[in-house]
User: Fold this.
Amino acid sequence: MFEFLFGEKEYLSCDWLEYGIHFCYNGIFNCCEFIHGKNYIPVAGVNYNNTYDFTTFFKEKEKARKNMRKGIIPKRCIGCNKPKVGLWSKKLQIKNIAISSVAKCNSDCIYCPNHRMRKQINKIKDVPVYDFLKKCIDGKLISTDCHIEWGGGEPTIADEFDKISYLLLENHLIGDFGIHSSGIKFSEVLVKYIKEWSKKEYRKVMDDPKLSHGIIISVDCGSRELYKKIKSFDNFDKVWENITRYCSAQADYQSDVKVKYIVIPNLNDTIEEFEKFLKKAIEAKVKWVIIDIENQWFSININNEEKLKQYIVIIKTMEKLCKEYGLKQTYYSSFCYLIDKYRDFYDSV
Ligand code: SF4
Ligand code: SF4
Assistant:
């Protein structure tokens, strides 16, 4: 009946396969395996001589969608737990975009998947995204409530950063938007985003505590010595100075500049260090803090209940400290999985 009325049909599929694009530096995919974790492999990679072929991508995508409608799961999706039975629209529309088309970064975090290859990775040319995106916009393929997540490498040093940003700003596609920056380069374009988000039309989604929107900068510590150990370079003062400048561009009620603390076991996992970080955040006029647990450690220790619970206790103490300091606080991907895994224990701490 739904198919007859709205072109919708109930079957097993996933938001990314149906409605997603991931612009990655090594190809264009239906989904973002970096977002979803290690078992999730992109289904339709299309990358010819480092260019993005618009027609081929959508032809492949349609083929995968049609197969899902017939109950045929693409080989590369087997094992992924994202698919769910739902009503899926026959009409092709893009509701999820992940951009990581730039591999280079001006930081070198020890937990970065590219840490050991940073020098080689920094030589990889950015993949041009602007023309592809523009074609999608001109073809009215992108839904107005599309979720966009722009991550690393470092977006602000991407060749097309300004061009793509203005395209998104002009087309009002920044209402459900998160951008991850090292904070090392100050960007006037990021200030533009901040000012634009103060408009009423964007506030509801931007303030949603379930989502991580806005500009997200992982500092992970409150002291210079530790910053150098974690990020390989001494940009501690510069980063906090830039965070302060971004925060001062926010209207009073806004909290779209968020600082993240990735807990790295045996390195920055003390409450003392976290408290130093909170003091720096308050000095910079940050209002929202995000906490996560380092992903590689988490993957290795996924079955070590004792260790994982130990970190739930530590992070719960950090959460309480944020409240005492009057800061909004949310969690990020790996720690959200951890809470889901030990929900009762988390609630009891
Ligand atoms: S099912 Fe998993 S691997 Fe396949 S497109 Fe969806 S998120 Fe990606
Ligand atoms: S800022 Fe992000 S992309 Fe850059 S080194 Fe750190 S984790 Fe990697």
Observations:
- The mean pLDDT is 91.
- The longest strand covers residues 142-150.
